[in-house]
Amino acid sequence: MNIQEIALSNNQRKKIQKAVKDDSVLLVEENGDIVINVAAYKTFKQELENDPVEEIVGEDVLDFSAEYFVFN
Q: What DSSP designation does 48 have?
């Protein structure tokens, strides 16, 4: 399993949870980590006119060759 871990501030974490409300894309772990399924996120953002996670964390941060993004 290929995972990209990214450190976030509390505000960024809250913004991601508000921007991505699809349960097939985003999962919140008991410890507060946010897990995003990359394949599901790609499909999700095709339906939108923007890239919500990239706008929050930055364009060059995400590695789309990973299977999951884990924000902690």
A: S
Alpha-helical (H) ranges within 1-72 are 10-19, 38-46, 52-57
User: What pLDDT does residue 1 have?
Assistant: 81
Of 2, 11, 5, 19, nearest in space to 72 by CA: 5
Tokens of 27: 């999962």
- What are the residue ranges in the chain where pLDDT is below 50? none
Q: Closest Cα to residue 36, out of 15, 17, 12, 59?
A: 17
Q: In Å, how far are 7, 10, 21, 32 from 44, measured between CA atoms?
A: 22, 23, 10, 22
Query: How far is residue 1 from each of residues 20, 57, 65, 67, 68, measured CA to CA in Å?
Result: 22, 22, 11, 7, 8
pTM here is: 0.91
